[in-house]
Design goal:
Order of helices and strands: HEEHHEEHEEEEEEHHHHH
Number of strands: 10
Largest sheet: 6 strands, mixed
Strand content: 5-15%
Helix content: 25-40%
Radius of gyration: 20 Å
Shape: globular
Structural class: alpha+beta
Length: about 280
């Protein structure tokens, strides 16, 4: 068994979702349709998407704790080509503060609580227990990797793992000046559904809502259309059961308004999506 695969199996058995990386720290697709990211993803991106497959199935989403998948014949050619190993921090209940310079490390030493540290080729990974939204370039030389993101596996590190502090969570919070217009509260419609939930796993809903928030937040253009399509996707997956709460809806509306959408546009998009689905 190749050394990388042996490490991957050990991590997966311990509950850490892992994935192999090609040359240049680029992930492999985990289905034949996504070989070479042919489904429409961007191979230079460290987060999955956009993807035209029914479900996102490359990038961070390829990470798995299923040792049977990792050792299956389908993955055998992948491990022969793999150059490195990565893991999904959010899937392991972790957040990685990626520090890529001496200045960034000095800032962390002065601003963040001591925790487990992993040395990297350019700096350090500071690991905290807890999951949050990922974001790049939150400060010069600082990325935050947690939900919907992957980080290279460079060993277990040293030090005692600390709880995720508020100062790290605050790094990805937009300043009020970036929000148009400013709202003291987000008005949302009542959640739909009420039927039996077919998903059975709360993590499935949480991942779906987090992905929707990120899709809206990262929209480079056509925000109106992106918000509508995202609302439609969330309602299509969760609108007919009772698991979608007003808190989830508020998160989506907040993300849309942070991109400049008005409350009326959000409500219209939500209503139109419900109408299209017959909800």
């Amino acid at each position: 068994m190749p050394e990388l695969l042996r490490t991957a199996v050990d991590l997966a058995a311990a509950g850490v979702p892992v994935l192999p990386l090609r040359e240049g720290k680029v992930p492999f697709g985990n289905c034949r349709a996504c070989a070479g990211v042919a489904c429409g993803g961007r191979p230079h991106m460290k987060a999955a998407g956009p993807c035209r497959c029914p479900a996102v199935c490359h990038g961070w989403a390829a990470a798995t704790t299923n040792t049977g998948v990792l050792t299956s014949p389908v993955w055998a050619p992948v491990w022969r080509e793999a150059k490195a190993l990565a893991y999904h921090p959010g899937g392991a209940g972790l957040t990685v503060v990626d520090l890529d310079s001496a200045e960034a490390i000095a800032w962390a030493c002065a601003s963040l609580p001591a925790t487990r540290i992993v040395r990297t080729t350019r700096g350090e990974h500071w690991l905290y227990e807890g999951v949050m939204q990922s974001a790049n370039a939150v400060r010069p030389g600082v990325d935050v990797k947690s939900s919907m993101q992957y980080a290279r596996w460079l060993g277990p590190g040293t030090g005692t793992l600390a709880d995720l502090p508020d100062v790290v969570r605050a790094l990805v919070v937009k300043q009020p000046s970036t929000v148009r217009p400013a709202h003291t509260a987000v008005a949302v419609p009542a959640p739909v559904g009420g039927g039996e939930c077919r998903h059975r796993m709360p993590a499935y809903l949480e991942r779906g809502v987090a992905m929707a928030e990120q899709r809206i937040t990262e929209a480079p253009s056509a925000v109106h259309a992106t918000v509508y399509r995202t609302f439609l996707a969330v309602l299509s997956a969760h609108g007919r059961c009772g698991c979608l709460t007003d808190t989830h809806v508020a998160r989506l509306f907040t993300a849309a308004q942070a991109k400049g959408e008005s409350a009326r546009h959000c409500t219209d998009a939500w209503t139109n999506a419900r109408t299209r689905l017959g909800l």
